[in-house]
């Protein structure tokens, strides 16, 4: 149905565009191209009816649009640039140019076109909304200003309310979140997007019963995502209903098998609230482990190697000792021992490091030569 309406509207536009042209256009043939979505062929057909040097704005934009619909953004840009030169203040042309620039990943050019639009039409909501999406940095001042302007022009747009609310939430300006969220929710009380702002907002404002109501409403709308479960877990924790809280966090855990530092921490708090201190300790340990990067050992190794290559042996040994905390195979502490022994002639530190290796080195057949070597060095260092 939507496609049929589009084709009818587009055909009407075509008739208007070519009504005063002396060039013969087979409208049935053109319609067939549109109806079957053969836009590249439509563009080629139109090009046979008009010369490359044509200054007919309607023809140029029509060909550019066909190329755009065909996905040929390079050719589309060529024709829309020509249209832009013919009519630089045309909003439809500027929007098309911005769209093409975005699709070709030329973000700065897209910004420039949208900014041209808002200079011509300072109340153009669509341009402000598109501009907000072109600034990935959430706290970029231009992004925030465009969001505020877009919200002022259309306070009911859920996307804008959500994005602006997220920023205000992170800035802990809850009163501003409330002021822009209320009218939007009044207009659409079942918006999942808006309810997912209301839930953490109510939690932040200690409106726990209202937060629970929002969470249950999200469930009824089919959203039982980890975001909703996690926030409800926090709500029930604040209400000191630790069993309910823990159950929600366990559901989050089943949804997200990867280790999650904050989730383990929240579960630990629940166990502590239930006075199950052993489980609390276990989950605090899980939180610590999850908070440590899996690449930490690699980083310490590479840092130590860098200092060794710079012949900064004191620094290298210090780095290896710190990295040994994350090394289950005792490789780094062994390297540190070698530096203390061979490079720095620090007997006490070398003895201490070698002994640490012996305590932690797995007792395997493959490690026997290492153990024998360390024992020999220990004997030599003690004499």
TrEMBL record:
Q: Extract the SMART domains matched here.
A: TPR
Q: Which residues form a coiled coil?
A: none
Signal sequence region: 1-19
Where does each TPR repeat begin and end? Answer: 57-90, 226-259
Q: Keyword set for this entry? A: Signal, TPR repeat
Q: Which InterPro entries match?
A: TPR-like_helical_dom_sf, TPR_rpt
**Keyword flag Transit peptide:** no
Q: Please tell me the species this chain comes from.
A: Pedobacter paludis
> Do the record's keywords include Manganese?
no
Put simply, this protein is called: Uncharacterized protein
